[in-house]
Design brief:
Length: about 350
Amino acid sequence: MAKATNTTGLSGTERAAILLLAIGEEDASQVMKFMGPKEVQTVSSTMASLKDINKDQVGVVLDSFQENVGAQTALGIGTESYLRNVLTKALGPDKATSMIGRILMGGQTSGLEELKWMDPRSVAEVVRLEHPQIIAIVLSYLEADQSAQVLSVFPEKSRLDILMRIASLEGVQPSALKELNQAMEKQFAGKAAGSLQSSGIGGVKTAASIMNELESSIEAPLMENFKDTDSGLAEQVEELMFVFENLLDVDDRGIQLLLREVQSDSLVVALKGASQTLKELIFKNMSKRAAEMMRDDLEMRGPVKLSDVEAAQKEIVQLARRLSDSGEIALGGTAGEEYV
């Protein structure tokens, strides 16, 4: 259970959760209309897990929100360029493009957006008869973790073709994206129609993000086949993939934040397959007592199946990516800052 004990230690997600709890059901529901599926899930889970929130904490969060809003002027507010710049700074270019489309449509859900709210098997069923290029565009539009789950549903022989098409995409023409959106809308009777802003969809970065979210049992053979088919493209994707050992590139502050969210048992299993250098980085960012206990646990733990180690490492990597997406840590940071 997340426990809000002070205001300075609250994450951005926790502050957003407190704000939504404070403004009431009606206003909170209106705010959530502009949020994506993952954002709704994240903030909702945080709202459910917060406890022991006192009046002072709520007051500080509301005062901070009011101050930030009051600092804005009316000049430029509501224009696409202003919103795009603000959201890009807050969310990064990829998520900002998706968010600006929803906002400019007045929060309406388009055909492609509707897929984001569906479970992976349902998405796969919707697109399974489409051309692989269409499937690649759809998966490029979805969040990486959802795309990975959808890709896992497809037969093994289809995964490589779809992944290579995703990696080879260099954006999609607005007219083509609009046609695809309209085709999706026809499958969801009663949903409001909308138009989509043009965006850079697909590419090696998207393919790498999806690969990062796949189960190890699927990822490894898929990458091997990818290399056999197009070694150059596969190498570009692999270079952008974030793996457990890449935590060596995360600064001390980021490691400390990550350790707050990781279950001790999962960390022990993950470290069974880690380099000594990475182990020492983890120990350095723990309290002396916690580090000693972790060392003892590692020594006492018997042999662990490789699949269990890979699963634990994948879980931690996915957590690191979520913290990175929310702006709480920087993957590949070098600042070396520490909490005091």
